[in-house]
Specification:
Blueprint: H1 2-25, E1 29-36, H2 42-54, E2 68-74, H3 86-94, E3 108-116, H4 120-125, E4 129-137, H5 140-144, H6 153-165, H7 171-178, H8 188-207, H9 245-267, E5 274-279, H10 281-287, H11 289-304, H12 313-317, E6 325-330, H13 341-351, H14 353-362, E7 365-370, E8 377-384, E9 387-395, E10 401-404, H15 414-421, H16 455-463
Parallel strand pairs: 1-4, 1-5, 5-6, 6-7
Antiparallel strand pairs: 2-3, 3-4, 8-9, 9-10
Length: 467
């Protein structure tokens, strides 16, 4: 058995080197992870990005667009990962009665390949080369779990209980927690009851706009639902006696990290070159200062799990990868007038400042911007008590058109972040609203992808240098 394991590792190592040499010298592969925090529009982002890379008429800021002679979809390289259902999602957005596609609830992948004609002197003597773009789609809730790898059960419990105490949604769970004696003998019914209460709290917190709601599989359990690895909760006492509820919860927490989190990191996350984190910053602002501060901490924790930095050419040949570019994108920019986009971008930059500084120090590039992967609104100015009011107009769930003014974002991001850091419960000088719009009915010309805001700039940052 030991000899077999050693042989298997040697074979995998040789295959990794072969793949690395092939990618580096012949057909380079760009692996981009796409994830999004709650309701950030991840599925729409991937669908619109692929559609606009296939038909690049709306991608003027993608510098290599003119050099791409062909783009086409291919089967993804990993046969064990489900394919991202691009065609179904695009059909939902472009139907006569368009609707938002269903969000994906597990890992999926898509490969988009380009034929690129080199420019300059090199292009005269060589034909087009092939560049593959592998897009890995995974739930943002799973990304948050990577931070658990650095925490013991006791450390996680303290942080989770403190978070619940600062959220109105945690009241019922805390009541259930106070009724439990963690040092008594483990009882599975009591364990299930407390775990269910904790899960209900996490779901309510996510609905209220909070970002840090880990463990992520509690929200998206998949085929693990009901298993012991998802039947635990934070406790206030240390696990120091065998056979107690506290000791059993600690064991299950460690099993969760070992059997759920580490395989995801090893099989998917550690293989990425670039990463997109989509954020519904407008939704967090609407939810209030606590949600904004929670989002700031979450974004900082996310980047700490990325292993950002650059990998040298030799290590790349040996199959070593490290994320060297991270895009933090505030989605749904079409829900506010373009005059407010710089303010939303400035708020996003302030939210990721701590994370950006660490990434820059490690040699990775980061960018924050405001985007709309699919533009669902048009802008108009209406008269309000004799004053012009910059609004957006879109289609509501009942099929009617409605104009909407969400409020004015501050020019100085500190007017948002300072009250959030100080623990304010409400905004004192602003009222920020949000509205859900349905996709607009589209009529696309040949060669054009769906309308968007700054998706071409996002693509240039993510893959422009590789094309």
């Amino acid at each position: 058995m030991i000899i077999g394991d050693i042989a298997d590792r040697i074979v995998r190592g040789v295959e990794t080197v072969q793949d690395g040499v092939n990618e580096a010298l012949f057909e380079p592969v760009i692996r981009v992870g796409i994830t999004g925090l709650s309701r950030a529009g991840k599925t729409v982002f991937i669908t619109s990005l692929v559609a606009n890379l296939l038909d690049r008429g709306r991608m003027p800021q993608l510098g290599a667009s003119a050099s791409i002679t062909a783009a086409y979809l291919q089967p993804q390289p990993d046969d064990t990962v489900p394919r991202f259902d691009y065609e179904t999602h695009l059909a939902a957005l472009t139907a006569p009665d368009p609707h938002w596609p269903d969000s994906t609830r597990t890992v999926s992948e898509l490969r988009l390949s380009f034929k690129v004609q080199p420019t300059g002197i090199l292009g005269v003597f060589s034909g087009p080369r092939t560049v593959h773009l592998d897009i890995l789609d995974y739930p943002g809730e799973w990304l948050l779990d990577l931070g658990l790898l650095e925490k013991s059960y006791s450390e996680w419990s303290q942080a989770a209980i403190k978070a619940a105490q600062n959220r109105d949604q945690g009241a019922e769970f805390l009541t259930a927690l106070n009724s439990i004696n963690a040092d008594e003998k483990h009882d599975e019914q009591a364990a299930k009851s407390l775990a269910q209460s904790f899960t209900s709290y996490l779901k309510s917190a996510r609905e209220a706009g909070y970002s840090d709601c880990s463990p992520g599989r509690f929200l998206l359990p998949g085929d693990l639902e009901g298993s012991p690895v998802l039947t635990f909760a934070p406790l206030g006492s240390n696990a120091n006696k065998r056979g107690t509820l506290a000791r059993e919860f600690e064991r299950r927490y460690e099993a969760y990290k070992r059997e759920v989190v580490k395989p995801f990191f090893r099989d998917h996350f550690a293989k990425l070159d670039r990463q997109v984190v989509l954020v519904d910053a407008l939704g967090a602002i609407h939810a209030g200062p606590k949600a904004v501060e929670d989002l700031r901490h979450t974004l900082s924790d996310i980047l700490s799990a990325f292993r950002p930095g650059r990998v040298g050419r030799l290590l790349a040949l040996l199959g070593q990868r490290r994320i060297d570019r991270v895009l933090f994108a505030a989605s749904k920019a079409d829900h506010i007038h373009h005059s407010q986009h710089p303010r939303l971008t400035a708020i996003m930059e302030a939210l990721v400042r701590d994370a950006k500084d660490r990434a820059d120090f490690a040699g990775a590039g980061t960018m924050a911007m405001s985007i709309a992967a699919l533009r669902a609104t048009v802008e108009e100015t209406i008269d309000h008590n004799g004053d012009p009011l910059d609004c957006v107009r879109g289609r509501t769930s009942d099929g009617k058109q409605a104009a909407f003014y969400p409020g004015e974002l501050p020019q100085d991001p500190a007017h948002i972040l300072t009250p959030a850091r100080k623990g304010a419960t409400d905004w004192l000088d602003g009222d920020y609203e949000i509205m859900r719009f349905e996709p607009a009915r589209l009529t696309l010309k040949p060669g054009e992808g769906p309308p968007h805001i700054r998706l071409d700039r996002a693509a240039e940052f993510l893959i422009g240098d590789k094309l």
